[in-house]
């Protein structure tokens, strides 16, 4: 059963990744683009976790954790830049 479900989920998450990338490029305002970037890295995490389950490898889970940490730091840095105009005070 998982042999059919995981590739289907990978395809659906790939489609979500492409739609989010389109929103990132087209986004009408800067906050919309930041939200799309945040959603983009969450979709990338989901793709890596699904791919790790499909292959049975732990390496992809560690990469997903690294992407989660770097995405959080990036979101905080961009939000701070939008509020104050600089990142480091």
Name its key features.
89 residues; mainly alpha; Helix Hairpins; 3 helices; 87% helix; 0% strand; flat
In short:
By secondary structure, the chain is an all-alpha fold. It has helices at residues 2-26, 30-55, 59-84.
Write structural notes for this entry.
There is one protein chain. The chain has 89 residues and is an all-alpha fold. It is 87% helix and 0% strand. The chain is flat and about 50 Å long. The chain starts with a helix and ends in a 5-residue tail after the last helix. The model has no long low-confidence stretch (mean pLDDT 90).
Going by helix content, strand content and strand pairing, the class is mainly alpha
- CATH class, named Mainly Alpha
Mean pLDDT, rounded to whole units? 90
Described by the principal axes of the CA atoms, the overall outline is: flat
- CATH architectural arrangement: Orthogonal Bundle
User: Number of folding domains?
Assistant: 1
Main sheet summary:
none
Radius of gyration: 15 Å
CATH fold annotation: Helix Hairpins
Q: Helix content range of the residues, please?
A: over 70%
Number of helices: 3
Please trace the helix and strand order, writing H or E for each element.
Answer: HHH
Strand content: under 5%
């Amino acid at each position: 059963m998982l042999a059919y479900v995981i590739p289907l989920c990978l395809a659906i998450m790939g489609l979500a990744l492409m739609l989010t990338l389109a929103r990132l490029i087209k986004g009408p305002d800067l906050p919309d683009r930041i939200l799309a970037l945040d959603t983009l890295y969450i979709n990338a995490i989901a793709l890596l976790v699904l791919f790790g389950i499909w292959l049975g490898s732990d390496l992809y889970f560690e990469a997903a954790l690294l992407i989660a940490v770097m995405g959080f730091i990036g979101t905080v840095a961009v939000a701070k830049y939008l509020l104050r105009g600089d990142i480091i005070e």
